Amino acid sequence: MTTTTIPLPVTAVTCLEDRAQVERTTALDLPPGVQRLRLGPVSALAVDRTLNAALSSGTVLDARITRAWTKPAPLPPGERDSALRHREDELQRRESTLEAELARLAARTALLDSLAADLLREIAEGAGQGESEPVRWARELDRVDAERDHCAERTVNARIRLDATRLELTEAQQALDLTEQPEPELLAHLELTVETPGGPTELTVGHLTPCALWRPAYRAALGEDGGLTLETEAVVWQRTGEDWPEVRLTLSTARSALAGDPPWLTEDHLTLRDRTTEERRTVEVELREEEIGSTGPAADGLPGVDDGGEVRVLRAPAPARIPSDGRPHRVPLTTFTAPARTEYACAPELSPLVTRVARFTNSAGHALLAGPVDLVVGGGFTGRGELEFTAPGAPAELSFGSSDDYRVLRETEEHRATTGLTGRTVLTRTVRLHLTRFSAPGDHGTRTVTLRERIPVAEVSAVEVRLRKERCVPDPDEVDADGIVRWDLPLEPGARRTVTLVYELTASAKVAGL
After folding, report:
1. Strand-pair category, 244-252 with 199-209
2. Which of 157, 366, 408, 459 could in theory staple to 352 by disulfide, Cβ–Cβ 3.0 to 4.6 A?
3. What strand order describes the sheet that includes 227-238?
4. To which H or E segment does residue 465 belong?
5. What's this model's pTM, rounded to 2 decimal places?
6. Residues of the chain with pLDDT > 90: what percent?
7. Which residues, 6 or more positions from 224, have their beta carbon under 8 angstroms from its beta carbon?
8. pLDDT at residue 9, as a whole number
């Protein structure tokens, strides 16, 4: 058996809601027989039980992950490092500079020695042939000796400075050893035992890794021509201990952790009892408000991915680089442009603001997951909204902020009456909405504002809700099954409109709670 150490880079990643499936691929050229391979390093957070390895030609007999604490590799000091660490780095650089200077001086001294030897040989040969140039020979010898003395003096000074620098460096390193001990890091390697027929082969390794997640994000730009451009991006975080350089990135909404933890079983006791006489005579009702969950900021952390109850898979069109720094990194996915129908809408019961709403059709070719949207109008950032889950080809809407040209005032009146014979209770509620448009000079166009107000919807036969259309001014344009009443009001600059909504809530004498 032989042992070989081979690098094993990350080539593909499938990022899940709270973890990542990492795939590593490398090309090998192995001799025939049984081989022991050591590959890595890999992330120390790799889940051992999810490890799988395969060869294109050959068999993997055993695969395991080994971990060991090792001293981290020395790195240049950063802004958060101590002054002593910076001093050590400065002394090391000074030591390297002085050693390089001594090497240059030694080379120059050797060159001068060779020059002096050549000059003495020339003098000897000239004297043997009867040539005599004592003045020139003396001048050249004096120049060489002076330069050699200068180099010797510079060499002595450099050696003195180098010895002093090394002494300071030793003292600084001793102080660092006493005060700052670098924490060892946990490194993991993959050890494989394989049997191959020999020749080139490809090794593929996969495993799960925690500390990685992704969430969808969008950028919506509303153009002057009414078109809406929606860019879909994936925001990826990872702190697995190793970078993902130029990997094939796949985003999935699968929740692998849900299948591993069965739900807890609790006892549920059911009891039966006869209703009392008072309970038979009355019907308990109440006005109920239901809060709809959203994908906005959550108090207990990052919200989950709303995929409509079905696993969705998205793929990045280009290789992505995700460093292991725990910071968000945006990866472009898809872009499409669709015609949008815009309107100015207001729901005074919820907010007195008139907002610009764009409605469009999902033409991305895939489902749009719920997530935040950066809103852009006319090339300028206007705010951040929220996109709900939208199936392919389904309609969607986005709000592009409120308009300061409008003011909405809401007034309500309530009258309660009880008939003497039947004991029925009639609750009459009147809602008045005052809408005013304030326009800048030069704005002469008519703009339509859509107002929406709601009326209760009865779920029991003992309670009846009736819209008094004869008292509503103007008549509503639409009343849907959920009790939403809509008006489309055209407004000119400086115009003011008042909308009146009247409805009755009638309850029998048995009803209690209104």
Report:
1. unpaired
2. 408
3. 329-339, 227-238, 212-222, 371-377, 380-387
4. strand 463-467
5. 0.70
6. 52
7. 378
8. 92
The token pair that represents 458 in the structure block: 């009865």
Q: pLDDT grade, residue 293 (50/70/90)?
A: very low
In the 8-state DSSP scheme, what is residue 368?
A: B
- What mean pLDDT comes out for the span 40-67? 92
Nearest-angstrom CA–CA distance, 172 and 168: 6
Comparing CA positions, the residue from 393, 362, 390, 356 lying closest to residue 376 is 356
Instruction: Name the most confidently modeled range: 138-142, 154-158, 260-264, 298-302.
Output: 154-158
| Separation of alpha carbons 307 and 401, rounded Å | 26
**CA terminus-to-terminus distance, the chain:** 85
Could you report the per-residue pLDDT of 405-464, keeping only the tens digit for each? 899 999 999 998 887 667 788 889 999 999 999 877 777 788 899 999 999 888 777 788
Instruction: Write down the pLDDT at residue 296.
Output: 42
Three-state secondary-structure class, residue 173: helix
Q: Do residues 91 and 169 lie in contact, with contact meaning Cβ atoms separated by under 8 Å? A: yes
Confidence of residue 2 (pLDDT cuts 50, 70, 90): very low
* DSSP tag of 293: P
* Amino acid, single-letter form, for residue 299: A
Domain boundaries, the chain: 3-72+184-209, 83-179, 212-258+303-403, 407-512
Give the 3-state secondary structure of residue 457. coil
Which long-range contacts link 488-492 to residues 24+ away (Cβ below 8 Å)?
488/448, 488/449, 488/450, 489/435, 489/448, 489/449, 489/450, 489/451, 490/446, 490/447, 490/448, 491/435, 491/437, 491/446, 491/447, 491/448, 491/449, 492/437, 492/446
d(CA 450, CA 468): 20
- CA 169 from chain center: how many Å? 43
Give SS3 for 96: helix
CB neighbours of 474 closer than 8 A, spacing ≥ 6?
Answer: 487, 499
Check: CB of residue 208 under 8 Å from CB of residue 21: yes
